[in-house]
Design brief:
By secondary structure, the chain is mainly α. It contains 14 helices and two strands. It folds into two domains: 35 residues; 216 residues. A hairpin with a 4-residue loop joins strand 1 and strand 2. The chain starts with a helix and ends with a helix.
């Protein structure tokens, strides 16, 4: 009996040691993996990224407006910085006019063109308007019917930088309200999610957005600029490297505005 007991005891100890080794090795591996540094995108992003950041710095009224709306400029800008990299003034002028006319005259099936500095789509603007109006989130009134008049007014709003910023404000407020129950790991985690939602459609459910955000395949929109990074990667890069330039200082004014005084 003693011999059998000792064998069982030794076996149990061996099992516990093996289990402990496996468990802690997995913990260490996961911590190492999660702590992996953000890949260096400086060469990958190119001049278009720095042009976009420079544009935001030269327009401090945007950051000031966001602060007045009680929205953090760094987080809001991180959602649109990937889109700003796709902006081309010439393409917006040449292609945008024709596509806007087609959208106004022919309807929603032509609503997926991108326009303006933030490269917003008419379909995105309409989705924002519908959610904003349904939830009664502010003073703006929109015509939500699928008519030439409604589409024309929406297209004209998208030509305005002030209105594009207003759409961004509404988008952030809608996201904040919808995901108020979520405890984000950090600012970068939230920025990655918001930027992905902005890119692929914030009407999608959270699980779908997260799958797109962390998936191995790139979105088709990213491939258009021949890139190996995802929208969320650019948002995180911005938050880590340039977000501080748009965070409010102690006076409550955006840092971007303070540097231009």
């Amino acid at each position: 009996m003693d011999t059998g007991y000792r064998k069982s005891f030794v076996f149990c100890r061996l099992f516990l040691v093996c289990w402990a080794f496996f468990f802690f090795s997995q913990v260490i591996f996961s911590q190492t993996e999660s702590a992996a540094p953000l890949p260096d995108l400086s060469n990958e992003l190119g001049n278009k990224y720095y042009d976009a950041v420079d544009y935001l710095l030269k327009n401090p009224w945007m950051a000031d407006t966001l602060l007045e709306e009680k929205i953090r400029p760094d987080l809001a800008f991180s959602a649109v910085i990937p889109q700003m990299m796709r902006y081309s003034a010439l393409r917006d002028l040449v292609e945008g006019g024709a596509l806007r006319t087609l959208y106004i005259q022919s309807g929603r099936k032509y609503s997926h063109f991108s326009t303006g500095r933030f490269q917003m789509k008419a379909s995105f603007a309409e989705l924002v308007e519908r959610n904003y109006s349904r939830q009664k989130m502010g003073p703006y009134k929109f015509i939500l019917s699928n008519t030439t008049k409604a589409r024309g007014e929406r297209a004209r709003r998208l030509e305005s930088e002030k209105w594009q910023l207003r759409y961004l404000v509404m988008f952030v407020k809608l996201m904040d309200k919808r995901y108020a129950h979520i405890k984000w790991k950090n600012d970068e985690d939230k920025a990655r999610f918001y930027a992905t939602a902005f890119d692929v459609g914030f009407n999608r459910d959270m699980r779908t957005i997260e799958r797109i955000m962390t998936g191995k395949t790139l979105s088709r929109r990213s491939k258009q600029i021949k890139s190996k990074y995802r929208t969320g990667d650019v948002a995180v890069w911005f938050m880590v490297n340039d977000g501080h330039r748009f965070r409010p200082d102690h006076s409550g004014r955006a840092a971007a505005g303070a540097t231009n005084d």
